[in-house]
Amino acid sequence: MRFAAIDIGSNAIRLLVQDIDYHPDGSLQEDRIAYYRVPLRLGESVFDQGRIGSSKAAALSKTMQAFRLLMDVQEVQHFRACATSALRNAENRWEVIQEVESHSGISIECISGEEEAELIFENFKLLGRDIEGDLLCVDVGGGSTELSLLCGEQRITWQSFKIGTVRMLNEADDPKEWKRMAEFLKKYVRSKNVTVAGTGGNINRYHKLARLKRDQHLEQAKLAKWVSKIEQVPLNQRSTRFGLKSNRADVIVPAGKIYLEVLKRSGLDELWVPKVGLSDGIILRLAAEHHPDANF
Predict the structure, then answer these.
(1) 105 and 183 housed in the same domain
(2) What Cα–Cα distance (Å) separates residue 215 from each residue in 43, 147, 194, 249, 255?
(3) Residue whose C-alpha is closest to residue 36's, from 62, 60, 12, 59
(4) Whose CA, among 87, 164, 217, 221, lies 20 to 30 Å from 268?
(5) For the CA atoms of 78, 16, 261, 233, what is the dihedral angle to 10 degrees?
(6) Strand, helix or coil at 278?
(7) What is the mean pLDDT of the chain?
(8) Statement to judge: residues 255 and 186 lie in one domain
(9) DSSP code of 107?
(10) For 44, how many CA atoms within 13 A lie in the half-sphere containing its CB?
(11) How many domains does the chain have?
């Protein structure tokens, strides 16, 4: 069965198309069909002015029209479009959502930070990796950072913080949010047996820059080295020097700093990068709903 997920983030809009099938024994088979990313950066106007500007709204509508056609051509059977921090915090979100639906036929859901964390958590049920102790999932986006503490397949606690890469670039991050994050980590993580898992495109890129094998953990010292190395290079030279897309060249530095802050506040030296995210979780949730007998 073919599914699609649309992730409307603060930095970029993504469309993931996957085939998900299950065998009689309940095991799952996943095949990625296509992936598209449009660096729209909705968070720029929201975190600065509190609303989506007319040009950004028009661009979002056109992007959704294109995604609708792509899903039709690829015969997607079920899909879901979820918006995170930027759109859910915009004063004019319902106006924008109605405009998008009237032009594309796609209904956008503004999901809460809690549901965002839950959907990301869906991925960890199927990774098949034995974790000694608890697992702290850290997802860094353009507008927010979600922290979820997991024990096996059970989520112990979670919290969403208004700390993100686009917010930091716009100097719109609140010191009170950093303090809340520090308190959360001190209460639930520090001095405990915890593995940190980092999700999001930026940490995936750091893992690749460090030339690590898929299951190798990214050490705090190595991450700090790359954050410093990239930050010292002028923005207009980062794409050539490090092979970064122009729309990632600026956000990758604040993303690295957020992950480093989590590690430092947790008293931990490394993180695991499973290379999964919100889009993958949305599809797994859809698959579970439409394959009710499957064991996932």
Answers:
(1) no
(2) 32, 21, 17, 25, 21
(3) 12
(4) 164
(5) -160
(6) helix
(7) 91
(8) yes
(9) P
(10) 14
(11) 2
Q: Is the pLDDT of residue 295 over 60?
A: no
- Which residues on adjacent β-strands are paired with residue 3? 18, 78
Residues 107, 222: one domain? no
Domain boundary among the residues 89, 113, 137 is at: 113
Q: Tell me if 120 is assigned to some domain.
A: no
How large is the average pLDDT for residues 250-259?
97
Q: Residue 129 pLDDT > 60, yes or no?
A: no
Q: Tell me, what's the pLDDT at 126?
A: 64
CATH at 206: 3.30.420.150
What is the rounded CA–CA span in Å between residue 117 and residue 160?
A: 8
Q: What is the pLDDT of residues 136-145, one digit of tens each?
A: 999 999 999 9
The DSSP 8-state label assigned to residue 272 in this structure reads B
Question: CB–CB of 158/117 below 8 Å?
Answer: yes
**Strand ranges, E, within the chain:** 2-8, 13-22, 28-38, 78-83, 108-110, 134-140, 145-151, 154-161, 194-199, 218-219, 270-271
pTM, 2 dp: 0.86
The reply to whether 47 and 8 lie within a common domain is yes
From the list 93, 60, 62, 69, the residue with the least C-alpha distance to 17 is 69
Domain residues for 204? 129-275
Q: How far, in Å, CA of 222 to CA of 237, rounded?
A: 21
Listed residues 113, 138, 153: the one ending a domain = 113
